[in-house]
User: Fold these one by one.
Assistant:
Number 1:
Amino acid sequence: MVKKKKVAVVGVGAVGVEMVRLLEKREFPLRSLTIFARSERKVEIDGFTFLVKVATPESFKGMDFVFFAGTEGAKGASQTFGQAAINSGCIVIDNGDDFRMDPRVPLVIPEINPEALAGHHGLIANPNCSTIIALMALAPLHKVAKIRRVVMSTYQAVSGTGAPAIGELEKQVGAWARKRRLCNSVYPHQIAFNVLPSIGSFKGNSGESTEEVKMRVETHKILDDTSIRINSTCVRVPVFNGHSISMNVEFVKRITPEQARDILSKTNGVKVIDDPANNIYPMPISASGKCDVEVGRIRADQTVRSGLSLWCSGDNIWKGAAQNAIQIAECLLSKSK
């Protein structure tokens, strides 16, 4: 019997709301749940009203777990309050990207590298949403056949940017239906009926966006293998929720589509949906609101000797953020029994 825990969620945007929802849905052993944000207010989640309190360095005394619910690339809260929470004896699980590449901080997908949790110093980082979804499909295959090179193209939903982006897409679709002007403020261009090959910012001379860099460096850290050559193009698409990724993978050892399906069908957290002749394949609309990452379109990559092409979809707010963070806490609790 796990002792019930005092839990805090910092941030009540798209990810924070789902953290609150999933803590209940997954029957996390809650003794209490407190929500913190920049301003005090009341929020309603699934018919329950929560008082949101203003976060201060003293807010975390007596808490067991603190989840920082930053959206993609969000900075600030964990930098401001993370150390104070750790000093108060809390375990901090951070969904932002402030500490992901800090060598002292584990970057964890519980189904893939739970051993990284050993010896943590009170702070654990949640990987980028697209990295999580991609690696749920890639890591089991890498374990068997070792990946030499992977080329990925992501199709990322607006929910990854947060609630304002969801609202912007809704407004643009409504304006289009009423034959009115489509306005944008969250994104640099109209997102409705469009795709934007730009997620994050562009720094340096590589031509990569920060999101594309994350896909590479986080994969290397999680798989503990910097020899894998990784190239990605990250694209924002007019989908409300659910990221999808196309992957062309070259392996060191030959692996057939049949072997890959068998491996993935036995992988916890993965659901193989692969019958394209009958229009059955992963889609963001079917993966949204699901705990598993869906994988399909598994076929030989005809351009290399030992290669596969894959397509996967996953809920970027659940497995790509809130769910993975809670699973980290669950994993810690299971180890403490």
Number 2:
Amino acid sequence: MAEYDSRPGRISPPEPELTQAQHDADEEDLQAGLSGLAAIVVDALTVDESLTHIAEFAAHAIPGADGAGVTVAHPSAVPLRIQSWAVTAEFVRKIDTLQYEVHHEGPCITSMRTARPCVSGSISDDARWPRFGGAVLRLGVNSALSLPLVLREQVIGVINAYAYTLDAFAEHAVAMGTKFAGPAAVAVHNARLLTAAQQRAEQLQRALGTRSVIDQAVGIIRARSGVSAEEAFARLIKISQDDNVKLHVVAERLVEVTVRRARARHLS
């Protein structure tokens, strides 16, 4: 039996009597979701795109889910701060907005803080979230299952599954979801690493471009005045400080003016 935190006083619903065909179908859905996770990094998606795909895979892999979402926490933020999230349906977005932006309570936040799966089969009666529960009831949603994404003993996010029916997530659903959550945590982590690497590469490329135009501007000043490279660079810095304009912008302007003048002389 999977370990999880449930609504206080909740009597666990009886496990559904699944046929072998139903067991096989659930396993196939889980394996399809896991295969999809493996392809996410290969496809070099952004973090938001990756989260959306993970949420879609989770909705299929967790039995009984009518919709799902994936939420990522900001690293080491105290108090808890949500960094980003993706959902499979608009009603899930409304629920998560109630959790993160309105009431600041709910199964995802509980799971993120306890690092344990969190289950509720009747959200409106759940004493853990008195304000959130009533708001969600108006959306017609009764059941929630939140699964922490744990990597190196740190919770980096949560998978949230929701259902309109009461007690939609029994132990079987928790077990299947837990099997999915482990690889999903790795997929989220890898997607974040890949995006960070891409951002660093873009920053480096911009820095190289900036350095190139500054070198060109230094060369122009030297050609005009005959000063050394150090003196030409110092002049650029002084202009930057006097005009309160970034150094690379001063260099770009100088190069552009010089090029325009050279073209005008060539055409005259």
Number 3:
Amino acid sequence: MNSLAEKVISGDSRALARAITLVENRSGDYLELLKDLYREGGKARVVGITGPPGAGKSTLANVLIHSYRERGFRVAVVAVDPSSAFSGGAILGDRVRMQDRALDDGVFIRSMATRGHMGGLATATSDVVNVLDAADFDLIMVETVGVGQDEVDIVREADTVLVLLVPGLGDDIQAIKAGVMEIADVFVINKADRSGADRVERELHSAMTLAGVDDAEWTPPIVKTVATKGTGVEELVGAVENHAAFLSKNDAAVKRQRLKYGRKFRDLLAERFLMGVRKHWLSEEEEEKLVETFLRREGDPYSCVDKILKAVEWEKKP
């Protein structure tokens, strides 16, 4: 086994941070590391937290950490932040807001930059979750950037998805219109002490009825919280645990895992294929030249892709 993998499994926090950096940057022998760690995972529960910017995702994650720590859980948080326009790194707002957890050995918080990747999740988020899983965390929370419709990527990683809404954003059911309603396992109306919270709840109930969600095996509960005051957090934890219990007794969990690992496999194939193309057939500099021809309409991307695919030495399935 990779020596770094052994340290991660043994609980070495420095090794864990180093392993995540290798995985995020796609550097060193990160693939061998992932292969070793993958076999040690499969035990952690993954909770996704998504919603529009300003909904209080980081604050809610912080109080959930506290609640689950009181229950004896080891908790990790992957906070996918917007990329800095200057460094390309993560804007570490989430870790700033969770500083009171910095000295807790049972908590690990990591910010990741999207680096331009749409969908609310960084490309390597799935692999980072696998690393944390192998490090024997009981609960892994994935908090996304909050980019609207593309936020549905979160369903790839999470066992339970929390969709946050807040009253007073102008369009109280914006998240529903953006298409994330279908991925919610629990709706959270945060900042529920504001006026308009009851209206958001009524509109959610109406939207679920129209969408036929009420007839499904699992109807997403609606939980009101005021994360800054800790109000409603225990009710939210109860809803998350109820969903976990539902998954344990229902084939929905198997379907979700199949979706997760099927998409992960295809994403990995696409990533590795692109790496091979970059190495053998098309450098980034050559791609830039091709893009210029596309802009001038002197060439088309379809023909270029066909040419590259024909250049690849495809082997017949054994």
